[in-house]
Design a protein that fits this description.
The protein is of the alpha/beta class. Helices cover 37% and strands 16% of the residues.
Length: 585
């Protein structure tokens, strides 16, 4: 009986010591507990000295999966793919010094495209900060211009609130990256763990509900429109407002165009969709924008790739601009009726206002007649000679046909990105994952990893070019380690394609440093990583090759399509031109 009592006492003591209200944990353990409290199940990262205590604790637990990338830039892009495809906050963990600086490109990319990320960076011990210690950089200072917020944690008792605030800021309002810099000694210090339920940030209160008076003004203007157009961007997808956008668009009967980042917010096969607008957008979209009299912009920021020359942009339009970020409204182009608020809530309120009988919706059938005339230009058309070279557009057309438009598609940056945007008809949000604002070569493959890890049973295709893919090609090793069956569609034209196109148009065809004359054998390279490699050189082989690629459901396939090096992306708006001054061929 005595031994039973002793055992019982020992068990009671063990229970008491593991009570979360009384147990002391070190900073590394607290860090893991904070991630669990936030529901973060996947972390992308790369270890180093300043974060080894955290990595040791990651190794001991099973609630949070860590994905080991091969470069910190790849970690951030993978977290972006994860976040963009799920709507959840992506999480990154890297070490101090070069670990943090390698992550900056990805952080800047996330900032430009409003991607919710929390990037945890290791830092040297607090006593060494400012002493040029080994692997020390001023991470807070370096990242300040390209984050939504950043935090240097100086004491272990500050860590839980810092994590809580980081996730709250990253995922609310206009989403964006938040950097949390954690000195190594903070991960060693101990305290009793408790996680705050409230981020306690009275100075940070995003406006979500649109002003009722502004919504009424917008409805009155819409009711008077003769040539209206809806211009929607990535903010609609970030807000989860695609259903509200569809309801509003179908109620009004107005034409709608998406930005590059907004593709999929409205079904790309819908008759009301007049294709993407902007520098490489459709003729009908850009002409409709130019001649519109009421422009309804939702979750879009009027960037230069959309507007062209500002003094020639939408000269006849009254602008209604809906955005959750007040600093985006009238920053680039004047809004006549600004509405600050969450796109989902504002669209719902505006739809209700138009439905209540106070406003008669305009007859836009004459306007549609003009748009259909513009659409006859068929500005995305191309010709494939089956006895000639492979046209890159043909590969993407066939990819769309073979996948039924149902794949997750990531891309790198350049001509191939624009051809995907033109030819792959996205019918759902969060299926098109690309780098818009920063235009980061190397984004596609690691982003595809994040998408595939978030959606293990879905088809994920990475469309890239022979220049972009080499920026983060080491992530083929990560794909091998975690068995990620991504399908890489490499449109290999032996040039930095968009650079060559601009050199054709604006530099008298002087191809300064744009010819890739020392390319690897991509088939052998893929095979050296343990993947399947294919090379496709003839148009007649494109369709059967894609069928075979898609049939290999459990393998990563690197398909190297040798395409016409002279092909350019049309339409195109030249730099300095107005958005209705388009080069069509």
């Amino acid at each position: 009986m005595l031994s039973v009592r002793l055992l019982s006492n020992r068990m009671d003591n063990l229970k008491q010591s593991s009570n979360p209200e009384t147990q002391e944990l070190n900073g590394a353990e607290i860090f893991i507990r904070c991630l669990v409290e936030e529901g973060a199940t996947t972390v992308f990262g790369y270890p180093g000295g300043a974060v080894l205590h955290i990595y040791d604790e990651l190794h001991k637990q099973q609630e949070v999966d860590h994905i080991l990338v091969r470069h910190e830039q790849g970690a951030v892009h993978a977290a972006e793919g994860y976040a963009k495809s799920t709507g959840k906050v992506g999480v990154v963990l890297v070490t101090s010094g070069p670990g943090a600086t390698n992550a900056v490109t990805g952080i800047a990319d996330a900032y430009m495209d409003s991607v919710p990320l929390v990037v945890f960076t290791g830092q040297v011990r607090t006593a060494l900060i400012g002493n040029d210690a080994f692997q020390e950089v001023d991470t807070v200072g370096i990242t300040r211009p390209c984050v939504k917020h950043n935090i240097l944690v100086k004491k272990v008792e500050d860590l839980p609130l810092a994590v809580k605030r980081a996730f709250h800021i990253a995922g609310t309002g206009r989403p964006g990256p938040v950097v949390v810099d954690i000195p190594k000694d903070v991960t060693e210090q101990s305290r009793v763990f408790s996680y705050p339920q409230d981020p306690d940030m009275r100075s940070y209160q995003p406006t979500l509900e649109g002003h009722a008076g502004q919504i009424k003004r917008a409805a009155k203007l819409i009711a008077k429109a003769e040539r209206p157009i809806i211009y929607s961007g990535g903010g609609v997808i970030s807000s989860g407002a695609h259903e509200e956008l569809a309801e509003f668009t179908r109620l009004t009967g107005f034409p709608i165009t998406n930005t590059l980042m907004g593709l999929g917010a409205f079904p790309g096969t819908d008759p009301q969709f007049i294709q993407m607008l902007g520098m490489h957008g459709s003729y009908e979209a850009n002409m409709a924008m130019h001649h519109s009299d009421v422009l309804i912009a939702v979750g879009a920021r009027f960037d230069d790739r959309i507007t062209g020359r500002l003094d020639g942009f939408c000269p006849y339009a009254k602008v209604i601009h809906v955005d959750v970020d007040p600093s985006s409204i009238s920053k680039n182009f004047r809004a006549h009726i600004p509405v600050v608020g969450d796109a989902r809530k504002v669209l719902r309120a505006l739809t209700d206002e138009l439905r209540d009988g106070k406003h008669s919706l305009p007859d836009v059938s004459p306007w549609w007649g003009q748009i259909r005339e513009w659409a006859k230009k068929d500005s995305f058309a191309y010709q494939q000679d089956m006895d000639g070279e492979i046209k890159p557009q043909y590969v993407l057309d066939q990819l769309y046909q073979q996948t039924g438009g149902d794949a997750f598609v990531t891309s790198d940056v350049g001509q191939h990105q624009m051809w995907v945007a033109q030819l792959y008809k996205f019918t759902q949000p969060r299926r098109w994952i690309n780098s818009g604002g920063l235009g980061t070569m190397g984004f596609g493959l690691p982003a595809a990893m994040g998408v595939q890890l978030a959606h293990p049973d879905e088809l994920v295709c990475c469309v890239t070019g022979e220049a972009s893919i080499q920026m983060c090609i080491q992530e083929l090793s990560t794909c091998r380690q975690y068995g990620l069956p991504i399908k890489i569609i490499n449109l290999n034209n032996r040039y930095m394609g968009m650079v060559r196109q601009w050199q054709d148009f604006f530099y008298d065809s002087r191809y300064a440093m744009s010819y890739m004359d020392a390319l690897p054998d991509f088939v052998k390279l893929a095979e050296s990583y343990g993947h399947v490699g294919m090379k496709i050189e003839k148009p007649k082989d494109v369709e059967p090759a894609l069928r075979e690629i898609l049939s290999l459901k459990d393998r990563l396939v690197f398909a190297d399509f040798i395409t016409d090096p002279r092909e350019n992306v049309f339409p195109m708006i030249a730099p300095g031109a107005a958005h209705n001054e388009m080069i069509l061929s």
